[in-house]
Design a protein that fits this description.
1 helix; mainly beta; Jelly Rolls; 7-stranded antiparallel β-sheet
């Protein structure tokens, strides 16, 4: 599978989230939709609600859901398909 450098950790421990300071990150919400996206910077996010599929340009689709800690690499072009309304904490590096 070609995930284009996307890193995924399912259900990280509350301690890890606390150490990372996730609750101090920005919050992003989006309703069911499909749209193209390009990551200008590396983004780490923690999903608190919803379910979605990200398909990197030239890569395989990956499905994400509540409880996932994800890092998307800078420069990645992809398509987001939100299957259930999403809410996430996010941080750009």
């Amino acid at each position: 599978m070609n995930n284009q450098g996307i890193l995924l950790e399912r259900n990280p421990s509350p301690m890890k989230l606390e150490v990372m300071g996730v609750e101090n990150w920005g919050i992003w919400k989006k309703e069911k939709s499909t749209f193209p996206w390009t990551y200008a910077q590396q983004e780490t996010c923690y999903i608190t609600r919803g379910r979605f599929v990200v398909t990197p340009e030239g890569g395989e689709p990956m499905e994400f859901q509540r409880g996932d800690l994800i890092t998307f690499p800078a420069g990645m072009k992809c398509t987001w398909e939100i299957l259930e309304d999403v809410e996430k904490y996010y941080d750009f590096q």
